Amino acid sequence: MSLQNFLSALDSLKSEAISTLDSVKDADAFEAARVKYVGQKKGALRDIQKQMGSVAAEDRKSAGMRLNEVKQAIEAAVNDAQNRLGGGGGSDSDPTFDPTLPGVRPNIGHVHPITQTISHLTEIMGRMGFEAAEGPEVEDPWHNFVALNIPEDHPARDPLDNFYLATAQTGDERRNEEGSRLLRSQTSTVQIRVMENRQPPIRVISLGRVYRPDDPDATHFPMFHQMEGLLVDTHVTMANLKTVLRVFATNYLGGDVEIRFRPSFFPFTEPSVEVDFLWDGQWIEFGGAGMVDPNVFRAVGYDPEEVSGFAFGLGVERLCMRRHGIKDIRDLYSGDMRFLSQF
């Protein structure tokens, strides 16, 4: 094709396309014209562009420059027609759409109250120098029981009180002595893992899920969260433990909170206490604590004559319920947006 013929075809296409696009009256006519002239598959502009190959090599620069000018002019006509028709672009455009009206605000999700509580607890304990540590939720008997000084005949190791998992043997008999793994029943397991890999001083907390086959009721659930705290150093006393828990309770539950410490027993602490807060005229347990038992120190290679420490485990759900006035733990896991959207 000669250059003159190619340029003539471009001028004819430009004139026809602009005239047609300027005269369209509705969205259907606009869409038909758009496809005819600038369609990606069979558009006239695309067809004439393919003819560039038949133009002499020495004329292609001039032909290409003119092609771009025509293309820009037709695309401008397409945009003008679309704007003139109020958006154009297809037969399913809504002629009643008014862009000046305020939009409908979408529903935006937010952080679950338990996650909010975990973040708040981490921040409070961080101000007291405790760093966060994590551990696996699927544990072995060594970390969940043996290293925590829980003997084989202790009720806490009963298969009916734990979620045991049938898994292949790993070859580490010490840590698979009961022939299975289990979902951890307490975050105290993280204490052991931290002490196995670090030397004192240690000041850590661990927040995470734990599992016990409890029947769901207003204050119990088979899956819940604990905050485990551990402080190991020299000359640590029960007074340090009580101070940390009182400061924590005041910061999270408010300055008017009443808490008490009751003597108790846990295999991994000695002496041991249970910690309660007063709620609606009743004392509610929200955790256990005590001085780390010497046998626990020996299990991780510490000398109990040289170091001492305390540990505590607090129920995250009960703290959350107390702070927000929630009466039933099951509401936290109901998935009911009417409830969750309040937080």
TrEMBL record:
GO biological process per UniProt: phenylalanyl-tRNA aminoacylation
InterPro entries on file: aa-tRNA-synth_II, aa-tRNA-synth_II/BPL/LPL, Phe-tRNA-synth_IIc_asu, Phe-tRNA_ligase_II_N, Phe_tRNA_ligase_alpha1_bac, Phenylalanyl-tRNA_Synthase, tRNA-bd_arm
GO cellular component: cytoplasm
Binding site for Mg(2+): 270
Cofactor: Mg(2+)
GO molecular function: ATP binding; magnesium ion binding; phenylalanine-tRNA ligase activity; tRNA binding
Any one Pfam family match given in the protein's UniProt record, by short name: tRNA-synt_2d
Residue ranges constituting the Aminoacyl-transfer RNA synthetases class-II family profile domain according to the UniProt record: 127-319
Key word ATP-binding present: yes
Localization (cell): Cytoplasm
Family membership: Belongs to the class-II aminoacyl-tRNA synthetase family. Phe-tRNA synthetase alpha subunit type 1 subfamily.
Protein name in UniProt: Phenylalanine--tRNA ligase alpha subunit
